[in-house]
């Protein structure tokens, strides 16, 4: 870690240029020749990224940031805060400490946190920042987490792991065995030191694939922030073989949290179906990721439009974990109806279980984006292509 970056003049320069165009800044002469210009520019980029994602760090004096990519990949404060509600006890060890955002919030829920980080600079950076944030119950240890666990040789209430992918060239193929640390391979070893393991993975990981690699899974948390799924959390308990609960969480800007949970059953409940009624319900992204579509139908007593549409309907509005619309009109997706009702209009378009993309529909029918009209292009229970023209019902 380069402590020269803490020079008051450099810090003042970073703060003064947070909103400046980085390409323009890069072309000017370095006003601090004793420090690498790229390092200073990186602090500006990373701190800018932290403004909304990590406001506590952004507002704290003399914080040092890792690369912009590291800041992008770390947990946001809101998702870290949610994770802290899942753990309790005296001691937690984080085997992949990184920038330390999760541990900052874990430190508020447990007496003692051990932050392991294999990268020496990142470990030193995290330790420095914890001091600036006045966090006194986090111990930073640099090195391989497996070796650290063996050396400490003590029991923890929780082990937390955020494994990183080793091979980015694999594209969308994401298996836990391809990550560092290799959690599936090390599970038995980890359970020598704890009864509870919390694993964070990216939303790209398929839930079925994750379950095929892990055991003793008690809960799966699907966490979305402003309707964008940010992470999957796998809660493991030593020797557990009971029911598996899926908990979906959507954290909204206004600090409200929308939750829905169900038991992942081998004999799931069956949805009911109907043609469109007065209201349309679209689940949030966390529920969409969960795959609990029949559970939504049975729990809320809503009817699905089609087995594969994942849109729901009812004659009554209700508080729902997603968007709610009043159906103003329902038309067939035909040339005659589209010309009569939607051609050259302005509307927000969505497709669900529909052959054409939003882009191709806009182009074909010259529909502009925006306005108060919401159009869902979908398929009904009779396999007929329809368009639902709606107005959004804003939640109180």
Explained architecture:
With about 400 residues, the chain is an alpha/beta fold. Helix content is about 30%, strand content about 30%. It contains 15 helices and 19 strands. β17, α15 and β18 form a beta-alpha-beta unit. The mean pLDDT is about 95. Keywords: Methyltransferase, Transferase. It comes from Flavobacterium psychrotolerans.
- What is the CATH superfamily of the largest domain? Vaccinia Virus protein VP39
Distance between the amino and carboxyl termini = 48 Å
**Order of strands in the sheet with the most strands?**
3-2-1-4-7-9-8-10-11
The second-level CATH architecture of the largest domain is: 3-Layer(aba) Sandwich
Count of beta strands: 19
Number of helices: 15
**CATH topology category name of the largest domain:** Rossmann fold
Largest sheet: 9 strands, mixed
Shape: globular
In helices, the fraction of residues equals: 25-40%
Secondary-structure blueprint:
Blueprint: H1 8-16, H2 22-27, H3 37-53, H4 55-58, H5 68-73, H6 77-84, E1 91-94, H7 101-106, E2 112-117, H8 120-132, E3 138-142, H9 145-152, E4 158-161, E5 164-165, E6 179-180, H10 183-190, E7 196-201, H11 207-213, E8 217-225, E9 228-237, E10 245-251, E11 257-263, E12 272-273, E13 279-283, H12 285-290, H13 293-300, E14 303-304, E15 312-314, E16 322-332, H14 335-341, E17 346-351, H15 358-365, E18 368-379, E19 385-393
Parallel strand pairs: 1-2, 1-4, 2-3, 4-7, 8-10, 12-14, 17-18
Antiparallel strand pairs: 5-6, 7-9, 8-9, 10-11, 13-15, 13-16, 14-15, 16-19, 18-19
